[in-house]
Amino acid sequence: MKSNLGQGASVRSPIRSNAQADNNMNIQNNHTSPVSSSGQPKNNTSKSMKSRVLQIVAYTLLVVFGLGIGGGSYVWFGVLSKIGYSNTPFVKSGDYAPIDLSQLDADQITNGDTTDSWAQGGHTKVYINSDFPIKKVAQKDKDVENILIFGVDSRGSDDVRCRADAVLILSIDSHTKSIKLISLMRDSGVTIQGRSSTDKLTHSYAYGGVGLLVNTINENFGLDVQRFVMLDFNSSAELIDLVGGIDIEVKADEVKYANQSINEQNTLADLTTPFLTQAGYQTLSGVQAIAWARIRHADSDFVRTSRQRTVASSLMKKVSAQNTLVQLSLLKDSAGMFETNMTQTDLIRIGTVVAQFIGNIVEYRIPDDGLFTVQENPWMMLIDWDKQIPKLHEYIWGRSDI
Length: 402
Fold this sequence. Notes:
The protein is an alpha/beta fold. It has helices spanning 18-30, 54-70, 73-79, 201-221, 233-242, 252-269, 286-293, 301-320, 324-334, 344-357, 385-397, and strands at residues 2-3, 84-85, 90-91, 134-135, 144-152, 164-173, 178-184, 189-190, 199-200, 227-231, 246-250, 280-284, 339-340, 361-366, 372-376, 379-383. The chain has one domain: LCP protein (Aminopeptidase, 3-Layer(aba) Sandwich), CATH 3.40.630.190.
């Protein structure tokens, strides 16, 4: 087997079990790329080169949770101090003061603040705007907790005020003893407080940071999110590099497109990642693996999402094959790649539950097939809220009227 990097370490692939898992896999497999009125895939949804990798990192984050609990609470307290903590403001909903955002253009917001970027690793720091605190929302079911995981459309650590590149809800369900991953399409048309017309979900982060993003999600999708985890593209590639890369079978017709993506990332981040030189089973570095998972033009969306799942499961299998000491070292090294408003107590509590449920992970995407139309200019997915919200709530809580 050819290797594109040095020898490395390796997380157990989550087993989809029971009829519910099978059904949800079918749901995901039937999803296609957003389409234009002509029925052809709409390439506009792929403006960001990182939007297809968040699920990979979400799986890895679950494993990090589980590894910490496996090592004992004393390990958590020794490692959790390395996780970036965001002291995000909260406010009662009735005390929230709306701000007019009508003059902002999210597509022109790419300026960052180097004083707010992380000092180590070139990571982008979460964007917190004190004018947009998170509105307090009561948890709808004490046994179902919803956490926001998102990536950012940044081009460097100083690019703090940017768009939310990928948005995912991690729903931990103690009733069904399952973990549900719900992808919210970034180009979904939503109501953003302060904007006079429907706008893209991704833009809410650029307008008002994580507070406005959380509020927009809760108000449009009827959710109860209060906690979040943020990471950037560099983090996902570094996680793969930490385990020494992952083993992937690259097809002949994929090499060209993977190399195009590698070249793009090399240019943007001033990297020298080597190109793939041949097809076949080989060990890919972080940038190479993400580039392979991101291929958009070689085949169908079904195959693209399959690549994404392959990268995620390969990473988890490799980590799970290591002994406890190596796994704990991975936990320690990867802790600084995340930023969250969850306290150490929150992380230990959630990690304990995740460790029990990691064998039952199911997935869903919003908007669902047939529950949206396409607006061409500006390009957006307009959701049929009357049908989508009950279906989403049924998926998360087991009832549509909550």
